[in-house]
Write a structure and sequence with these properties.
The chain is α+β, with helices and mostly antiparallel strands. It has two domains: about 80 residues, Fe,Mn superoxide dismutase (SOD) domain (Helix Hairpins, Orthogonal Bundle); about 130 residues, 3-Layer(bab) Sandwich (minor pseudopilin epsh fold), CATH 3.55.40.20. About 45% of the residues lie in helices and about 10% in strands. A four-stranded mixed sheet has the order 3-1-2-4. Strand 1 and strand 2 form a beta hairpin. It is globular and about 50 Å long. Bound molecules: fe (ii) ion (FE2). The site of fe (ii) ion (FE2) has 7 residues, from helix 1.
Length: about 230
């Protein structure tokens, strides 16, 4: 998987640069939403994390090490939530791009068609997973045991901690859409899925799993089998 660069040094996690201008996702996501979401919410998770780990042994850990060390531990829930939300948001920004959506690159399209039957079905599964999130959470496209799957997580939970390789994520927290869409969450997801998904990022994340031959070979040999599962957690 492509590493997320957090420009961190021990004990100090830094908000990574947004990969596009704050108005670059308009009209689907407004500059106002992006300014709050990135500049307040994402930045807030990182500030909280730095405060929580200050002066502790956790200062020596990377973000992903912090997530692994704190996952599922009630006494470390605040650290997990901050670390995972920091990671999830960095992954989310890169899951979107201006003038995104549309048709995936050819090799990726073949893989998705092999797994879901069609790109449209994959997109419908993402939308259905988002609709099934109760409260706040995330929707993911992941690679797990050779299969591409759509799943949802609650709150800050991330499939990284379940041994899965994230390929794409969509933010289902209310702060991701409320300024622009209020209660019309489904409209937000339809627009994001159709217009903003960064399929190139999905392909980049998928490619290392298949070594030098890459995803084109994976598509040719159908190493990614069919099988859609909607996991609930
Ligand atoms: Fe968010």
């Amino acid at each position: 998987m492509i590493s997320i660069d957090y420009h961190e040094r021990p004990g100090v996690h830094v908000l990574p640069a947004l990969p596009y201008a704050r108005n670059a996702l308009e009209p689907i996501i407004s500059a106002r939403t992006l300014s709050f979401h990135y500049g307040k919410h994402h930045a807030g998770y990182i500030d909280t994390l730095n405060r929580l780990i200050a002066g502790t042994a956790f200062e020596a850990l990377s973000l992903e090490q912090l997530m692994a060390a704190s996952a599922g531990k009630a006494d470390l829930a605040a650290i997990f939530n901050s670390a995972a939300q920091a990671w999830n948001h960095s992954f989310y920004w890169r899951s979107l791009r201006p003038k995104g959506g549309g048709t995936p690159p050819a090799a990726l399209r073949h893989i998705i068609e092999g797994a879901f039957g069609s790109v449209e079905t994959c997109k419908n599964e993402l939308a259905r997973a988002a609709a099934n999130v109760v409260g706040n959470g995330w929707v993911w496209l992941v690679l797990f045991a050779g299969h591409i799957k759509v799943l949802k997580t609650n709150n800050a939970e991330t499939p990284l901690n379940w041994g899965m390789q994230p390929l794409l994520t969509l933010d289902v927290w209310e702060h991701a859409y409320y300024l622009d869409y209020q209660n019309r969450r489904a409209d937000y997801f339809t627009a994001v899925i159709d217009k903003l998904i960064n399929w190139d990022f999905v392909a980049e994340n998928l490619s290392p799993a298949f070594g030098m031959q890459g995803i084109a070979e994976a598509a040719r040999t159908a190493r990614i089998g069919s099988g859609i599962s909607l996991l609930s957690h």
